TrEMBL record:
<keyword id="KW-0949">S-adenosyl-L-methionine</keyword>
<protein>
    <recommendedName>
        <fullName>Thiopurine S-methyltransferase</fullName>
        <ecNumber>2.1.1.67</ecNumber>
    </recommendedName>
</protein>
<dbReference type="InterPro" id="IPR025835">
    <property type="entry name" value="Thiopurine_S-MeTrfase"/>
</dbReference>
<comment type="similarity">
    <text>Belongs to the class I-like SAM-binding methyltransferase superfamily. TPMT family.</text>
</comment>
<dbReference type="GO" id="GO:0032259">
    <property type="term" value="P:methylation"/>
</dbReference>
<keyword id="KW-0808">Transferase</keyword>
<dbReference type="InterPro" id="IPR029063">
    <property type="entry name" value="SAM-dependent_MTases_sf"/>
</dbReference>
<dbReference type="InterPro" id="IPR022474">
    <property type="entry name" value="Thiopur_S-MeTfrase_Se/Te_detox"/>
</dbReference>
<feature type="binding site">
    <location>
        <position position="127"/>
    </location>
    <ligand>
        <name>S-adenosyl-L-methionine</name>
    </ligand>
</feature>
<feature type="binding site">
    <location>
        <position position="49"/>
    </location>
    <ligand>
        <name>S-adenosyl-L-methionine</name>
    </ligand>
</feature>
<keyword id="KW-0489">Methyltransferase</keyword>
<feature type="binding site">
    <location>
        <position position="70"/>
    </location>
    <ligand>
        <name>S-adenosyl-L-methionine</name>
    </ligand>
</feature>
<keyword id="KW-0963">Cytoplasm</keyword>
<dbReference type="InterPro" id="IPR008854">
    <property type="entry name" value="TPMT"/>
</dbReference>
<feature type="binding site">
    <location>
        <position position="14"/>
    </location>
    <ligand>
        <name>S-adenosyl-L-methionine</name>
    </ligand>
</feature>
<dbReference type="Pfam" id="PF05724">
    <property type="entry name" value="TPMT"/>
</dbReference>
<dbReference type="GO" id="GO:0008119">
    <property type="term" value="F:thiopurine S-methyltransferase activity"/>
</dbReference>
């Protein structure tokens, strides 16, 4: 699937209301492990492909400044509507920036987001971005993410399962792939691995893995 087809796929899911992946509360893997990034209060956290995740609300409640990027304008508007908030909206062609309090979300394709628009970030939380993309786009996404933020501490949640059992998304991402994409910039620590209860989509065994990506020191 190319970038254009992938964008259409996700836009149509939001338009049809096929959002079974959305969680109505903060993900327990986030609440258990965000401290592993050792970020100070007020740190700026980037949440790529954020949807209308309640994780952003939880992070803001912990005193962080949260920036998301989400392809679907529907998801962004619903996120703020569900909170009963009317956000400020600013054109940032070809994106739009919705903001309220310590949360802002860029609506549009993440590949159109630039470092100047995003601004400096202190950390990244990726629960559903990397695993949402097919393999070729995952590589492009990983490179783009590094170009946006540089190597900053990241909390990354992945799934590992037999890809022949299920087409995806979500896709299986193993440690070897992580090292291929991020190994030049990060050291990896597996913080938790747990079996997906009932199997992934009830069809095949899978593990959900939580990684801390720690920036490597600059080479001399």
């Amino acid at each position: 699937m190319d970038a254009k087809s992938n964008a259409v796929f996700w836009q149509e899911k939001w338009e049809r209301g096929e959002t079974g992946f959305h969680e109505t509360q903060a993900n327990p893997l986030l609440t258990r492990h965000i401290a592993a990034l050792d970020l100070p209060a007020g740190a700026r956290i980037f949440v790529p492909l954020c949807g209308m995740s309640q994780d952003m609300v939880w992070l803001a409640g912990q005193g962080f400044h949260v920036t998301g990027c989400e392809l679907s304008d529907i998801a962004v508007r619903r996120f703020f509507s569900d909170l009963g908030i009317t956000p400020d909206i600013v054109d940032a062609e070809p994106l739009r920036c919705f903001s309220a309090g310590t949360i802002r979300i860029f609506a549009g394709n993440i590949f159109d987001l630039t470092p100047d628009l995003l601004g400096p970030m202190d950390g990244i939380y990726d629960r559903a971005a990397l695993i949402a993309l097919p393999e070729d786009l995952r590589r492009a996404y990983a490179a783009h993410l590094l170009s946006l933020t540089g190597p900053v501490p990241e909390l990354l949640v992945t799934l590992d399962y037999d890809q022949s059992c299920l087409k995806g998304p979500p896709f299986s991402v193993d440690e070897a792939f992580l090292r291929e994409c991020y190994g030049q910039a990060y050291a990896f620590t597996l913080l938790e691995s747990r079996a997906v209860e009932g199997g992934l989509k009830g069809r095949c065994p899978a593990s959900e893995n939580v990684w801390r990506l720690s920036p490597l020191p600059p080479s001399s």
